[in-house]
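Run: sequence + S-adenosylmethionine -> complex structure.
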Amino acid sequence: MSGTPELRQRMMNHLQEAQGLQLAYVGLVNGLFQALAAEPSSGEALAGRTATDPAYVARWCDAAYAFGMLDENQGQFTLSSVGQAFLPDASFSLMPLAVNAMLNSHMADRAAALMRSGERPGEEVLAENKTLLPWFGPMLEGSFAPLFDQQILNGVPVFSEMDRKGGLVVDLGCGNGWYLRQLARKMANIKGVGLDGFAENIHQAADLAKKEKLDSRLRFLKGDIHDFTLDEPADIIAMNRALHHVWDKKESVFAALRDHLAPGGAVVIWEPNWPANRAELRHPAKRGLALQNLIEHIQGNHLLRPDEISAGFESVGMIPQVYLFAEGREAVIVGRKKQTP
Ligand SMILES: C[S@@+](CC[C@H](N)C(=O)[O-])C[C@H]1O[C@@H](n2cnc3c(N)ncnc32)[C@H](O)[C@@H]1O
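>> structure
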C-alpha cells in the first residue's frame, strides 16, 4: 500500500490553494484587502488604517505577497489582480471561497472531535467561531445570489407571477436577507418579511436593506421557524437552505407553511439536491455536498432529496413541482396551495 509521487504532488497543490484561501480569510476579516483597494500602503500604515497590530500585518503582507495577492514597490503594497478578486464586491469574488474554506476547517475539527461520542451540538457550532459568524451571510449571498439572479428567477414561473401581482414574500431562515433584497430591487410592488434565529443575521439584513433604501418594504425579525406569526397571509413563503434545519419537525413545519399562505399562494423551497444514489456524489459538481452533509450532521441536520420535500407538500394537500439548477446540484421545489380549501 502506498501513494505515488504524482498523487502526493496533486495533494500538495490542493494544500497550497487551501493555504491561500486561509490567508485570504485573515485579510478579509480584518479589512486588509478592502483598505489596500482604497489606497496603497506600507505594512505599518495598513495596520494603522485598519486598527490592527503592525507585527501581525507585517507577516500577513509577506505571506499575501508570497501567494501573489499583493505586489510591492518601495515598501508600498498594492492589490494584485488575484488580491482584487478577493474583494467582497468584486465580480466573481473569491470571498465566498475563502470563508467556505475556513468554515470547513472549523467544522472538520468539530466532526473529528465529536465522532467518538456521537454528540451533535446543533446550530450553535457556527457561532463558536467568532470571526466566522459575520461572514456566513455574505458567503451565502456571494455563493448563491448570482445563480438566483441568472437562472432561478427566470426558471421558476412563480417569480414572474409575483412580479405581475405583487404581494407579501416571507423568507424563513433569511440569513443576511439577500434574497428579499434581490426580489425587492426587481419587483417594485412586493413587500417582504425575513425571519432568522441569529440576531447577527437580522442586524445585517436590516442594515443592508436600509443602505439600499428598501427598508420601507422589507422588515427583518429575530424568531423561530417552529413558531412564527404573520400579520397577513403570505403570497410566497421562501426557505433557502433552511428547511433541512427544521426537518426533524417536518409535519408541523409543512402544516404551518400551508396555513400561513394565502389561497393560491406558493411555498418556494431551495435546497442542495441530495442525490438518490451514492454514486452521483462522485460527480465533481456534487462532491462538496457530501462534506456538507457531514457538517450538517454536527448541527443536527441532513441534506434532503427533492422527493422527500415533495412528499412533505403532498402530506398537507399541496401540489409540488421540482426544478433543478447548477448541473442538478441545486433543487427548487414549489408547493402550491389550492385556490379554494
Ligand atoms: C444555511 S443558512 C441560509 C440562510 C439564507 N436563507 C441564505 O440562503 O443565505 C440557514 C439559516 O436558517 C436559520 N435557521 C435555522 N433554523 C432556524 C429556526 N429554527 N428558526 C429561525 N431561523 C433558523 C439559520 O440561522 C441560518 O441563517
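>> summary
The pocket of S-adenosylmethionine is lined by residues 123, 140, 144, 173-175, 178, 196-198, 201, 224-226, 240-242, 245-246 (CB under 6 Å). DSSP finds 14 helices and nine strands in the chain.
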